[in-house]
Amino acid sequence: MQSINGFWHAAACLSGKIDWSTALRKYDHPLDAMKDNELSDSGIAAIHRKQLQKGSELEVSGGVVSIQEPHFPPALRHLPYAPGLLFYKGNVDLLSETSIAIVGARRCTQRAKSLTRSMAKKLADAGLVIVSGLAYGVDSAAHNACLNRTVAVLGEGIERAQN
Question: 6: how many CB neighbours lie within 10 A of its CB?
Answer without folding.
Answer: 16
